[in-house]
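Bench notes, afternoon.
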Amino acid sequence: MVSEAVIWSIFLLPLASFAFAALVVRPFFNRYSLISGAVTIAALGTALAFSIWTLRSVILGHDLDFEPIEWLVVGGATIEMGLLVDPLTAVMLVVVTGVSLLVQVYSLGYMKGDPSFSRYYAYMSLFTAAMLGLVLASNIIQLYVFWELVGVSSYLLIGFWHERPAAAAAAKKAFIITRIGDVGFLIAILYLFTQADTFAAAGLNAFHIPDIWAAAQPGFAAGALLGGAALTWMALGIFAGAAGKSGQFPLHSWLPDAMEGPTPVSALIHAATMVAAGVFLVARFFPLFQNSADAMTVVALVGAFTAIFAASMGLVMNDIKRVMAYSTISQLGYMMAALGLGLYAAAIFHLVTHAAFKALLFLGAGNVNHATGTFDMRYMGGLRRHMPITYILMLVAGLSLVGIIPLAGFWSKDEILLGAWNGNGLVDTWVSRVTFSALIAGVIVTAFYTIRMIILTFHGEFRGGIDKELEDKAQTAPAGASGHGGVHLAESPWVMVLPMVVLGVAAVAVGYLANPQWTEEIGIPRHWITGFLGDGLQAAMGAVGHAETLDFSRWMAGISTVAALSGIGLAALVYLRRRDQRADPLERVKPVHTLLTQKYYLDTLYEDVIVRKGFFGVIAGTLDWIDRNLVDGIVDLIGWFFRNIGIAIGKFQTGQVQAYATGIAFGVLAIILALLLA
């Protein structure tokens, strides 16, 4: 059985590597900055081993209920710090530490020669530690602290090359938009604070996550504590925070811009940390959502809309990382839609498989950039002959994203589609049907933009890379872009390829190994991971919990496969047969292409209308008027008043004694008159 100290070490090891890289290596040994990478990788390797040990203990049913530590007492409310180790925690620990370890190894090659190498590893360690702290938190205040630390870490990493205006702007945009969502999460926490005494009277702690679950269950004695409208609004507040972090509509626009950070940062953000945090948050508080049909409906419909909405924009992007960014938003929509339909285990299962193939795709994009010096697919092409390993691995990851059997993405996406079709009574039937329709359409669009990306990058003839791009734009390379200037068409070094091979194996096998269909004869339960996660949810919710009972469906597998092959075939037909290698055939559909390229004009709406004309034009203009006319006006009025009094009094200062005597006489008379009247 794993000990409490070992579980705390999973979080403390990357935190210690952050402190070492930031406070020791960077200021004193920056010439030997490789030390920071080695220490970080060693710390994460140990954390991964401890995470696997923890997962094994949870699977074996060991008691991992640890006593929390009293942290703060505020207004009579006790805030504790502790560990919550359940199946969801155990799975997430392995995903976060595993993907982070592989990304850190890859970064040894990708970030080689960067003058801020130690700073990079310090930030990456802090990012990983923040996510692990969030996953392990047993208290909603503790969780919120790490939630915000994840946001701060992402700000530092997205703006890592802060000398570039685009990177600095993207970091600020990510920080501000996610803060908008966090307002909802904070309001939900503040509501719990107002109910602290009521919880205490029922023997519960208003901030302890299992107690919050209990307060939301109608079958518990304290069920009335969180019910009706209060439960719905609290769940929606939590979802607002999750929507910001996980890029759900309308808080999605920061995520594509976040591609300004180093590519390994993008891999970590999109696969295992920041964007996964939003899905994790809804899953962590799923017992609240499940008891509010209205909240579940909102989550399902927002997720379904985001899935098809974001996928459509991936159709026209030329930057390979932005294609993947919109793909991530879309896949997060699948997970949110699944949670909204009550498909808790299927959503987390898709999070696991997505972490493998999406991290692989981003690292593959890093290899492509390493070879061509650009992320613009219009200047790539023909790379399969120069980078065969990267090509095969990205093709595998892409097909897993599309959902081709027997790759990992097929098994998890198929469970979501089947669950959406079947429904489960938690939401109205029409919600399930609308969600299913959006998700199956999303499969076709996902297949199209994925194969488009593969063809533009690896097929046809090489189109010049960064050299040709700069020639066309008549400019020089931006300072600090990535450290990979020029074109050198060759496979990346082994330190970058090896982590991709590991992720490639995961993208092929993890779906089936984690959720086997026909293995009872060798002693492995079918659907063990969904059963494992579902059992954890049942334990959290008591007898009122909802169990998922999905099994493999040949007809649903057939429908999803036909949808995927339709998208693949259409993309191949459009892009393999085009004559002009630089032109995008989709540009012929000008109005649609323009609408998608302009991202439905939402960035224009946000930045020009809401921010510039709304905030600066109305709010800032109003404040400016108040400052000039009220604040300055009052100050000017006071000055005018005393200046005129001074002028009036000054008229009596004539220098003539008789005038002063007359003034004194009138003054004495005025005093006498005042005394008589009194």
